[in-house]
Design brief:
- It is a single chain.
- This protein is α/β, with parallel strands linked by helices.
- The chain has a domain at 7-229: Amidase signature (AS) enzymes.
- It has helices spanning 7-15, 21-34, 46-62, 105-112, 155-162, 179-185, 219-229, 265-268, 275-290, 303-321, 340-351, 354-367, 373-396, 419-424, 430-435, 464-478, and strands at 41-44, 74-78, 116-121, 168-172, 188-191, 212-216, 260-264, 294-298, 399-403, 439-446, 452-458.
- α5 (155-162) packs parallel to α6, α7 (219-229) packs antiparallel against α16 and α10 packs across α12 (354-367).
- The chain is globular and about 65 Å long.
- The relative contact order is 0.13.
- Bound molecules: glutamine (GLN).
- The site of glutamine has 14 residues, from loops.
Length: 479
C-alpha cells in the first residue's frame, strides 16, 4: 500500500479506475494476516469491511459525487472506542464479551463520511501503560523489531499503521498514548486540544486528560480525519463549539514565514535521555535555525513535577471512572461470589489487571480524607502552575519542541519489572495533557539500534492547523 499513503492518492487511483474499495480492503486484510504475529488486532471486521467496500464501490459507480469525504479511508480503532454492535473491552477481562450499544461520536462521524473500519486494535488496559503489555490480549510487538514493545497505550494503533494494515488509526491520549507509540514505531501521532473531539463513547480513564488522537503515516490524512471528527457535540459538554478549520486547506506552510520555537534545556539534558536522541534533536534544531527560524532554549522549572502530579491526578480520576465496573450492570461477574459484597470484590479482583488495580488503589488513596489536600489538592495546584508557565512560553513562541520520549522502544518485559521507571518515561508527553494543548509526534531519524526516534511539537489551544502545517514543512525539510 506504500504507493498509496494519502487518502488523496487512494481517491485518485479509484477515480482513474486503477483501484476499487474492495481491492483496497483485500490488500489491507492480506497485510493484517501477514503481520498477525505482531498481535496488533484483537478483532478484524473482515466480512463487514468487504461488504461496506462493495457497497461503496457501487455507490461511487452510480454517482461519484455521492460518496463521503473519507471515501477510501480504511481505519483501525483502539479497543476503548465504542462502535455500535461491536465488542469493546478496554483490553480488560472486566468487559469481556461486552458489546457497544451506541457509537462514539467520532466513530459515527467518520462512518457517516464513508470511512471503512477494518478492526479493533490492542492497547494497554483502559489506556493505562506505555508498552501495550498491560492487555488481556497479550503484548503487541513492534514491527521494526519484534523483541521490542510498540509503546503504549495505543500500541496496536501504531503497529497497525506502521505495518500498512490501514491508512489511519484512532487511538486515545491521556498522557502520551498516541504520541509515544507513534514515536516508538516511526509514524505520526496527533493529540488534538482537549475538547476538540468529543469524548462521548470513549471508555474513560482520566476524563480531564483523555482525548481521541490520530495515527497515520501522512499529515494530510490526519488533517482530513480530524476535520471530520472535531467540533461541538451535544453528548459531551466539555467539547468545544469553536469553529473547525479546513485543516487541509491550511496545510501548506508559508515558506516566507519565520517561526519562533522554544525548547527546554532541562529536557534535552535530562539524565534519562539517550545521547543519540539528544544529538538528533539538537541536529534538527540546528537545521531549523539554518532555515532562518528562531529556536531558543527557555527555562521550564517544572519538568520534574509533571510526572508525580500527573499520576496523582489521573489515578484519582481513574479510581472514580472505573467504579462503574462492579460486576452488576455489565461486564465480568465472578462465578464464585455468593453475596453482593463478594460480587463486587471478586468481579473486580478477577476482572482488572495488576496495573489497573494499582492505579485504582493509588487514586483512592490520594482522594481519601486526610490525604486529599496533601496529594490531590497539591497536584491540582501544580497542574495550574504548569499551565500558566506553558501559556506564558507560548505567548512568546509559536511552538515548543521536545523529544517524544527519553529512549527508543524498550525490550519486551523490561517495564514490567519497574512500573515507576515506566511512569517516569512519560516525562515529555504529559505536559500537553496537563495543559490541554495539542501536540504532535513526528519521526526524525533512526537510532544506531535501528529503532525510530521522534520529535514532538506542542502548540496553543486549538492550534492544530499550525501544528499540522509545520509538521508537513519539517517532514519535507528532513527528506
Ligand atoms: N503512559 C501513560 C499512562 O499510563 C499515558 C497513558 C495514556 O495516554 N492513555 O497513564
Amino acid at each position: 500500500m506504500s504507493k498509496n499513503t494519502t487518502l488523496q492518492q487512494i481517491q485518485s487511483a479509484i477515480q482513474s479506475g486503477d483501484l476499487t474499495c474492495v481491492e483496497l480492503v483485500n490488500t489491507y486484510l492480506a497485510q493484517i494476516q501477514k503481520t498477525s504475529d505482531l498481535n496488533a488486532y484483537v478483532e478484524v471486521f473482515e466480512e463487514e469491511a468487504i461488504a461496506k467496500a462493495k457497497a461503496l464501490d457501487t455507490k461511487y459507480k452510480n454517482d461519484p459525487t455521492s460518496v463521503g469525504k473519507l471515501f477510501g479511508m480504511v481505519v483501525s480503532i483502539k479497543d476503548v472506542l465504542c462502535y455500535k454492535d461491536h465488542q469493546v473491552t478496554g483490553a480488560s477481562k472486566i468487559l469481556e464479551d461486552f458489546t457497544s450499544l451506541y457509537s462514539a461520536t467520532a466513530i459515527e462521524r467518520i462512518v457517516n463520511e464513508d470511512a471503512i473500519i477494518i478492526g479493533r486494535v490492542n492497547c494497554d488496559q483502559f489506556g493505562m501503560g506505555s508498552t501495550n503489555e498491560n492487555s488481556v490480549y497479550g503484548v503487541t510487538k513492534n514491527g521494526i523489531d519484534p523483541t521490542k514493545v510498540p509503546g503504549g497505550s495505543s500500541g496496536g494503533s501504531a503497529v497497525s499503521v506502521q505495518m500498512d494494515t490501514c491508512l489511519v488509526s484512532l487511538g486515545t491520549d491521556t498522557g502520551g498514548s498516541v504520541r509515544q507509540p507513534a514515536g516508538f514505531c516511526g509514524v505520526i501521532g496527533l493529540k488534538p486540544t482537549y475538547g476538540r473531539i468529543s469524548r462521548y463513547g470513549l471508555l474513560a480513564y482520566a476524563s480531564s486528560f483523555d482525548q481521541i488522537g490520530i495515527i497515520s503515516k501522512s499529515v494530510e490524512n490526519i488533517a482530513t480525519i480530524l476535520e471530520v471528527m472535531a467540533g461541538a457535540d451535544e453528548f459531551d459538554s466539555t467539547v468545544s463549539s469553536k469553529l473547525v478549520p479546513n485543516y487541509i486547506q491550511e496545510l501548506d506552510f508559508d515558506t516566507n514565514k519565520k517561526v519562533k520555537i522554544a525548547y527546554f534545556d532541562t529536557a534535552l539534558n535530562h539524565p534519562s535521555i539517550d545521547p543519540e536522541i539528544k544529538d538528533q534533536t539538537t541536529q534538527l534544531i540546528e537545521k531549523i535555525k539554518g532555515e532562518g527560524h528562531t529556536v531558543e532554549a527557555v527555562p521550564f522549572e517544572y519538568l520534574d513535577y509533571i510526572i508525580p502530579a500527573y499520576y496523582v491526578l489521573t489515578t484519582a480520576e481513574a479510581s472514580s471512572n472505573l467504579s462503574r465496573y462492579d460486576g452488576i450492570r455489565y461486564g465480568h461477574r465472578s462465578k464464585a461470589a455468593t453475596n453482593l459484597e463478594e460480587t463486587y470484590k471478586m468481579s473486580r479482583t478477577e476482572g482488572f489487571s495488576t496495573e489497573v488495580k494499582r492505579r485504582i488503589m493509588l487514586g483512592t488513596f490520594v482522594l481519601s480524607a486526610g490525604y486529599y489536600d496533601a496529594y490531590y489538592g497539591k497536584a491540582q495546584k501544580v497542574r495550574r502552575l504548569i499551565q500558566d508557565r506553558t501559556n506564558e512560553i507560548l505567548n512568546d513562541y509559536d511552538f515548543i519542541l521536545m523529544p517524544v520520549a527519553p529512549t527508543t522502544a524498550w525490550d519486551l518485559g523490561q517495564s514490567l519489572e519497574d512500573p515507576v521507571a515506566m511512569y517516569l518515561a512519560d516525562i515529555f508527553t504529559v505536559q500537553a495533557n496537563m495543559t490541554g494543548m495539542p501536540a504532535i509526534a513526528l519521526p526524525i531519524g533512526t537510532h544506531s539500534s535501528g529503532l525510530p526516534i521522534g520529535v514532538q511539537l506542542m502548540n496553543k489551544h486549538f492550534g492544530e492547523s499550525e501544528l499540522l502545517s509545520i509538521s508537513k514543512y519539517l517532514i519535507n525539510l528532513l527528506k
